[in-house]
C-alpha cells in the first residue's frame, strides 16, 4: 500500500532539544544578554505553546497495513539513539561552565534550568526506549535516566503505572480536585516505593537476595552514582548545587506530564473485583503537532497505553480518547495555576463521563465538594 509519512523528517526536530544549552550559550555570547541562559524554560513555556497554537492539529494516522513496516524502519529508532550523546554533551559542557568563573550565579542557575529541561525530555526519550523488547534499547533508557537520578522510573512505569493506570492505586494518575503541587510529592514518593516493591518478588521467586546488581532499581541508581561521582571528581564540588537543580527540574517536568495525562480518568471495577482492561478512553490525547514532534508522539497517549511496545512513529490518534485543549507544553503552564486548571479541565472530565462526575477518579478529601459542583444528571424519562 502506498503511504507517505509526512512527519518522517520532522522527527529530527526532537534532536534540537538537547541543543538548547548550546543555543542559549551562543545567543548569550553574541548579544551579551544573560537571559538566554534561561532559554530552556523560555522555549518550553512560551515559544512552543505559541507554535502549538499556530502550527495546528495533526490527526494523520498510518494505515494498519503499513504499521509493521513502519515499526521496523531503523531510521526512526536511530533518531532516539542520537538524542543521548547530544544530551550528555550538553551536560558535560554545562558542568564545565558551572565549575568556571565565566558566568554569574544567576547565569549558572539559568543554565541549570535549561539543562533540567533537557533532562526531563530525556526521561521521555528513556520512556520510548524503555518500552522496547530489544535489550540494548532498555539499557539506553537507563543511561538516559542516569542524569536525573530517576532510574527507578524504568521499573515503576513499565510494571506499575501501566498495570494500575487510571485507578486510585496508581501514584502517577492524578485525581479531580488534586493540584499539581499536591500530586508531585505523592507521585514521586509513591513511584519510588512502588519501584522498590515491584523488583523484590522477582528475586524471591529465585530464592535470591534482591540486594543484587541484577536488581534493575539498584543498577539504575548505581549508574547515576557513577556518573555523578565522575562529574564531581572531574569538575569539582562546586557543580553539585546545579547538578541537583537540573535533576529536580527534569523530574518535576516528567511528573507534570504525568499529571495531565490521566487527570480524573477512572477504569470501572468488574464484578470479579478486577479493574477493566486499559482502554484508549483512560488517557488524555493531544494532536498538536509541534509538541508531538518534540516528544515522539507521547501525546498520543491512549494508543501508547493500548499498545505499550508500539514505536512512536506508528502511534495513532484514537476517536475514543478524550482530548486536551492544547499541547502538553501549554497544559503544564495551565497546571501551574490550579484554579484555572480546574475551571478548564473539570468540566471536560465530567463531559467525558457523560456528565456523571461520580465515575471519575476524585481526590477522596474533595469528593463531596466536587460532586456538589457536578451533580449527577437525572435519567431521561
Structural class: mainly alpha
Strand content: under 5%
- Please compute the radius of gyration using only Cα atoms: 21 Å
Order of helices and strands: HHHHHHHHHHHHHHH
Subunit arrangement of the protein: single chain
Count of discrete alpha- or pi-helical segments spanning 4 or more residues: 15
Describe what this molecule looks like in 3D.
This protein has helices at residues 20-31, 39-55, 64-72, 74-99, 105-130, 135-146, 153-164, 180-205, 216-235, 240-261, 289-294, 301-306, 328-335, 338-352, 367-373. The protein is built from 15 helices and no strands. The model has no long low-confidence stretch (mean pLDDT 94). The protein is mostly helical. α5 (105-130) runs antiparallel to α6 (135-146), α5 crosses α10 and α8 packs across α10.
Q: How does the SSE layout of this entry go?
A:
Blueprint: H1 20-31, H2 39-55, H3 64-72, H4 74-99, H5 105-130, H6 135-146, H7 153-164, H8 180-205, H9 216-235, H10 240-261, H11 289-294, H12 301-306, H13 328-335, H14 338-352, H15 367-373
Helix pairs in contact: 2-5, 2-13, 4-5, 5-6, 5-10, 6-9, 7-8, 8-10, 10-13
Q: Keywords for this structure?
A:
single chain; 381 residues; mainly alpha; 15 helices
Summarize the structure.
The chain has helices spanning 20-31, 39-55, 64-72, 74-99, 105-130, 135-146, 153-164, 180-205, 216-235, 240-261, 289-294, 301-306, 328-335, 338-352, 367-373. By secondary structure, it is an all-alpha fold.
Amino acid at each position: 500500500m502506498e503511504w507517505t509519512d509526512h512527519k518522517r523528517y520532522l522527527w529530527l526536530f526532537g534532536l534540537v532539544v538537547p541543543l538548547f544549552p548550546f543555543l542559549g550559550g551562543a545567543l548569550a555570547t553574541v548579544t551579551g544578554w544573560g537571559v538566554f541562559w534561561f532559554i530552556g524554560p523560555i522555549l518550553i513555556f512560551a515559544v512552543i505553546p505559541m507554535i502549538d497554537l499556530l502550527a495546528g492539529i495533526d490527526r494523520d494516522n498510518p494505515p494498519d497495513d503499513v504499521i509493521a513496516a513502519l515499526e521496523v524502519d531503523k531510521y526512526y529508532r536511530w533518531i532516539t539513539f542520537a538524542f543521548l550523546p547530544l544530551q550528555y554533551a550538553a551536560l558535560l559542557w554545562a558542568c564545565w561552565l558551572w565549575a568556571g568563573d565565566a558566568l554569574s550565579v544567576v547565569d549558572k542557575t539559568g543554565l541549570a534550568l535549561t539543562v533540567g529541561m533537557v533532562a526531563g525530555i530525556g526521561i521521555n526519550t528513556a520512556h520510548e526506549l524503555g518500552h522496547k523488547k530489544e535489550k540494548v534499547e532498555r539499557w539506553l533508557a537507563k543511561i538516559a535516566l542516569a542524569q536525573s537520578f530517576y532510574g527507578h522510573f524504568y521499573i515503576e512505569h513499565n510494571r506499575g503505572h501501566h498495570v494500575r493506570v487510571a485507578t486510585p492505586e496508581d501514584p502517577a494518575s492524578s485525581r479531580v480536585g488534586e493540584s499539581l503541587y499536591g500530586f508531585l510529592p505523592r507521585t514521586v514518593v509513591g513511584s519510588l516505593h512502588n519501584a522498590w516493591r515491584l523488583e523484590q518478588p522477582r528475586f524471591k521467586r529465585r530464592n535470591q537476595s534482591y540486594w543484587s546488581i541484577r536488581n534493575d532499581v539498584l543498577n539504575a541508581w548505581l549508574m547515576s552514582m557513577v556518573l555523578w561521582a565522575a562529574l564531581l571528581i572531574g569538575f569539582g564540588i562546586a557543580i553539585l548545587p546545579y547538578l541537583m537543580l537540573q535533576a529536580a527540574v527534569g523530574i518535576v517536568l516528567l511528573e507534570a506530564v504525568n499529571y495531565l495525562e490521566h487527570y480524573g480518568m477512572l477504569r470501572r471495577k468488574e464484578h470479579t473485583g478486577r479493574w477493566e482492561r486499559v482502554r484508549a478512553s483512560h488517557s488524555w490525547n493531544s494532536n498538536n503537532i509541534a509538541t508531538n514532534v518534540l516528544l515522539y508522539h507521547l501525546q498520543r497517549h491512549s494508543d501508547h497505553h493500548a499498545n505499550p511496545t508500539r514505536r512512536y512513529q506508528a502511534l495513532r490518534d484514537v476517536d475514543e480518547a478524550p482530548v486536551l485543549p492544547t499541547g502538553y507544553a501549554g497544559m503544564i503552564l495551565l497546571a501551574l495555576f490550579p484554579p484555572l486548571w480546574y475551571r478548564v479541565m473539570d468540566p471536560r472530565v465530567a463531559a467525558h463521563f457523560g456528565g456523571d462526575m461520580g465515575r471519575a477518579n476524585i481526590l477522596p478529601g474533595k469528593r463531596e465538594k466536587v460532586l456538589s459542583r457536578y451533580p449527577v444528571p437525572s435519567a431521561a424519562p
